[in-house]
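Let's practice the habit of predicting before peeking. Look at the sequence and jot down your guess about where helices and strands might fall. Then scroll down.
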Amino acid sequence: MQNRYIYRNEDVTLDVIIKIEHVVRLIARETGKPFDDCLYEFYRSRVYEMLQKTGSLMWVESAEFITDEYFRENPL
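Done guessing? Here is the structure:
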């Protein structure tokens, strides 16, 4: 079975994946690092853990908000 993100019996997987991509692009632009490096670092963050927990509703926040949270956890 594939991993899916479900919130109130609705599949929000595409929303979460698109949000991750947008956040990582913002991180890459801010840091000047390659996308793949930023993706790896993001996957290891507390913010990413929260994003995976659909009940936290982090996935409904803007990519800019999530990016700010990431940089609070991982200052430049």
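How did you do? The mean pLDDT is 94.
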